[in-house]
């Protein structure tokens, strides 16, 4: 019962309700190292108010977390980010952003459970952190695409140079993106869906 004496529990806002045309839903995870833009991507593309679990960074992370390239970052995801986007009138994607700091990686297994595919966000200033991320996806048999988030002060490389540096097989899509922009983030998700469709057509098995 609320303070007005009503026992009615308020429902979701109209803009947050699942479209009545939706017939199928898929779980997608957005992964990457600390500060690569996962929360930003979920927030930019989600058609509902995203759920975030960001907490203010404290002294506890000094000497534990690798904050290189993210000195101005004051908050970090400690559980997950959650959003939703309708790809078509029938297909809805549920987006789960993983925490980036390594001490929170134990949460990833639960977030990977039931995931159809993943987006690996990459920062060219810290390519090395991507190897562990992709290794975890490969271990669990989760297909993924790689999106290189364009930070203003990050070095730029040709896509094929990045493919070689990340040791990606020719079939795995890799593209540049700006996680702050809805259209760019949506293009990444559409690339992932096309990749998953191509795997299904060729008989991919996780």
Q: In terms of topology, how is this protein built?
A:
Blueprint: E1 24-31, H1 38-45, E2 54-56, E3 75-77, E4 81-86, E5 91-97, H2 108-112, E6 117-122, H3 129-140, E7 144-149, H4 159-165, E8 174-177, H5 182-201
Describe, in plain words, how this protein is organized in 3D.
- The chain is of the alpha/beta class and about 210 residues long.
- The chain is built from five helices and eight strands.
- The strands form two sheets. The chain has a six-stranded mixed beta sheet, sandwiched between helices. Strands 2-3 form a two-stranded antiparallel ribbon.
- The relative contact order is 0.17.
- The model is unreliable at about 60-65 (pLDDT under 50).
Summarize the structure in short.
With 206 residues, the protein is α/β, with parallel strands linked by helices. The protein has helices at residues 38-45, 108-112, 129-140, 159-165, 182-201, and strands at 24-31, 54-56, 75-77, 81-86, 91-97, 117-122, 144-149, 174-177. The N and C termini lie far apart (48 Å).
Judging from the principal axes of the Cα atoms, what is the shape? globular
Mean pLDDT: 82
Helix content: 25-40%
Strand order, biggest sheet? 4-5-1-6-7-8
**What's the Cα radius of gyration?**
18 Å
Q: DSSP helix count? A: 5
Helices and strands: which structural class? alpha/beta
Q: Say how many strands there are.
A: 8
* Main sheet characteristics: 6 strands, mixed
For the termini, the CA-CA separation is 48 Å
Strand content: 15-25%
Which stretches are low in confidence, meaning pLDDT under 50 for 5 or more residues running? Answer: 61-65
Helix and strand succession? Answer: EHEEEEHEHEHEH
